[in-house]
């Protein structure tokens, strides 16, 4: 069997790449150790993050570093035994997350996701799966005004620099959009450009059928 391209990984990214290569006339072999979409793409948040122009950076403030060092966070976990092996990578990650470098990386990264919503919408139309994509954005909510003010300031800079749209919501605005939230919130930032997928695994399988 001869193929032009082998794509390793049949999650949403790998399948999308395979479909686009096929559209360009390439003979493509899609390979995964499991069935398509059964790992990260099975149960992720399902966000098509048009607003996510800044990659997740390594924290630089002492409080955040201490929480990570003590494994006291919900978004990362490490085993102490592997620290010597991953230390060089972590150092490079920390260096590239410095503010000036992080800003530079964002400007290089932003064009890669600028058309992510329209591209997924087009693929979903071809795959007969447009019912799985909701164009309602997503909301980040806050319990403290200070945290929200800081997030709104960052959002304004992102809108200015990259043309991404958002709306700052007060308590009532959040309640109108999400009436079932019962937490004591001061407001939220509603990123209006992204889309979200009600069934990430289902969308991946629809793209596989298209492929």
Major sheet, described briefly? 3 strands, antiparallel
Number of helices: 8
**Looking at the chains present, what oligomeric state does this protein adopt?**
single chain
Q: End-to-end span in angstroms?
A: 18 Å
Tell me how many strands there are. Answer: 8
Bin the helical content.
40-55%
- Radius of gyration (CA) equals 20 Å
What structural class results from the helix and strand content? Answer: alpha+beta
Mean pLDDT: 94
Q: Which stretches are poorly predicted, pLDDT < 50 over at least 5 residues? A: none
Helix-strand pattern: EHEEHHHHEEHEHEEH
Question: What share of residues are in beta strands?
Answer: 5-15%
Biggest sheet, spatial arrangement of strands: 3-8-4
> Tell me, what's the shape?
globular
Explain what you see.
- The chain has 211 residues and is of the alpha+beta class.
- It has a domain at 138-192.
- 46% of the residues lie in helices and 14% in strands.
- It is built from 8 helices and 8 strands, in the order βαββααααββαβαββα.
- The strands form 3 sheets. Strands 3-8-4 form a 3-stranded antiparallel sheet. Strands 5-7-6 form a 3-stranded antiparallel sheet.
- α1 (12-23) runs parallel beside α8 and α5 crosses α8.
- The longest helix has 18 residues, at 145-162.
- It starts with a strand and ends with a helix.
